[in-house]
Amino acid sequence: MERYELGIRNITKKFPGTVALDNVSFDLRRQEILAVLGENGAGKSTLMKILSGSYPHGSYTGEIVSSDGEPLVFHNNGDAEKAGIGMIYQEKNLMLDLSIAENVLIGHIPKNSANIIDWRKAREIAVSELERLGITGIDVTMHVRYLNASMQQLICIARALVKRPKILILDEPTSCLTEQETASLISIIGSLKERGISCLYISHKLDEILKLCDRAVILRDGKFISEYERDAFDSGKIIEDIVGRRLEAAYPRIPKQIGSEVLRVEHIKVEHPFAYGKNIIEDVSFCLRSGEVLGLAGLVGSGRSELLMAVFGGRPMLSGTVYVNEKKVNIKSPSDAKKLGMGFLTEDRKTDGYIPCLNIRENMVLTILDMISKWFFIKTKREKSKSGGMFNQLRIKAPGINTGIMNLSGGNQQKVLIAKWLLTNMKILFLDEPTRGIDVGTKAEIYRMIGDLAAQGMAVVMISSELPELLGVCDRFIVLSKGIVVKELSGEEADEKRILHYSSNL
Fold it and tell me: Cβ(61)–Cβ(10) under 8 Å?
């Protein structure tokens, strides 16, 4: 019998109105990469927060046991760290204006005999730790803000590894990375086994799981459902276990009619958000038709998000012209864009998508306050009617519309934000990474939703770093590189190889 590094025994965790984990048990073996799979809301993150000490002992029932069978009691994150458990969170919790060395060693910066920080030693340790991850020649005095997403994720991993954990928990570590960056990170994570580290790996990307993991356990509705060894991996069966039903085609093709032009942008130029004196968009023009889903492709840093944000009025344009229904318009703010029938599901829902202290109902109606209020007072019946209808239509998993949005899974939060825009009279919808961090079941629902909206005549622009997703959903593609459009491809012409070729400007 293989020895385990960590045992999870009958863990149950309850929140008001819901059971997040229901008698969950499984083991993490030594030098194993174990995938923990499930839909948003299945209990994965709750379990990881218990293992990392964020939910203290006593707030749940059941126990965590060490490799020698002794119970482990964590009252906080520090207790978990002392027991050899490190955590890499989905949202990179870095200090952007501190150096690489400071971020890697935060909380563990070495001091000399006079109790003064030994910066030379700190830099040496940071360099050494990064070299163990295959990163050489980097200036560790550089501020983390100027690193790309992949490098920032590696800094998070280095910070966890400097504490010499026996177990590393990785929660969606590749959610904001390109395919090339993902491949590099997966190779690095795979090498951790050789250093004697066991990993718990959470991801909604099944292709990563199939490449990287030795075993997979599946949770659904807070319960342990099934377990698969690597040689028994079957993506169809795994998906069926995750969602509790057989999924239809991953990318449903819904009949639709592409109509006339509804949006045209000409010669857009946008200043770089961080590099003074540089432009992230140099000269971009494209058009969009009713009933069409237009894919905006390009590598991270190509300016896709900045382009859409500028057209939507959320970022100033240095120059350029926007036409809606063949009429020149002057969009100075998102409220101007909204009045013209435009909506925008942003890339980072936690930063600029929802208001954390509000509930589902309140977040949904933020875009239609003028429609449901009079004399500065909200008509509560109309508010409940509008939000309740969308709540049911999108099948949001929550006790009701008064549930706090922070109590929802990522996929259900995303549904609330989609509902927020569907309540408006929009005809044009911008989607920036609409399925990031979302499970396969909810992804399928969102793909169908996009197809249904297009079939009803809505025009959609979609950004995604997952090329199979972009190819599966979109009708036409604009490829950006170095701030310009390098290629336009029809649905018949486009494939992963061609898009990557033009994205890299080869």
Answer: yes
**Cα dist. 122→87, 103, 141, 155 in Å?**
22, 11, 10, 14
Structure tokens at 243: 């969602």
Task: Tell me the per-residue pLDDT of 351-364, one tens digit each, with 9 for 90 and over.
Answer: 778 888 999 999 99
226 neighbors 241 (Cβ within 8 angstroms): yes
- DSSP code for 195: G
* Model confidence pLDDT, tens digit, residues 383-442: 898 889 889 888 888 888 999 888 887 778 888 998 898 888 889 999 998 887 777 777
CA distance 425 to 354: 20
Rg of the chain (C-alpha set) = 24
181: nearest Cα among 51, 301, 43, 3: 301
pTM value is 0.68
How is 286-326 classified by DSSP, letter by letter?
A: EEEETT-EEEEE--TTSSHHHHHHHHTTSS--SEEEEEETT
Q: Which stretch of DSSP H or E encloses residue 23?
A: strand 18-29
CA–CA gap between residue 25 and residue 222 (Å, rounded): 11
Which residues fall within 8 angstroms of residue 70, CB to CB, at 6 or more apart?
none
CA-angle at 58, arms to 55 and 64, nearest 5°:
75
Q: Return the C-alpha torsion angle 345, 349, 351, 356, nearest 10.
A: 120
Query: Is pLDDT of 1 > 60?
Result: no
